[in-house]
Amino acid sequence: MPLIEVAGDGLYELTGGQLNISERFDLNGTLDFGEGNATVALGNDAINEWSNGTIVNAGGATYTAGVQSESYFPTGFNPYTEFASFASQGLVHTQGTTLIVPVNYSGHVFRLNANSLEIAGTIILDPGGQISTSSFDLAGGTLMGEGTVIADAFRNDGTVSPGLSPGMLDIDAPYNQGAGGRLLVELGGLIAEEEYDVLVIQDIASLGGTLEVVFIDSFAPGLGNHFDIMVAESFVGSFDTTIFPAEYDFALSLVNSDTTLRLTTTATPEPATMALLALGGLVLMRRRRRALYKKARSDV
Question: CA quadruple 121, 139, 171, 186: dihedral positive or negative?
Answer without folding.
Answer: negative
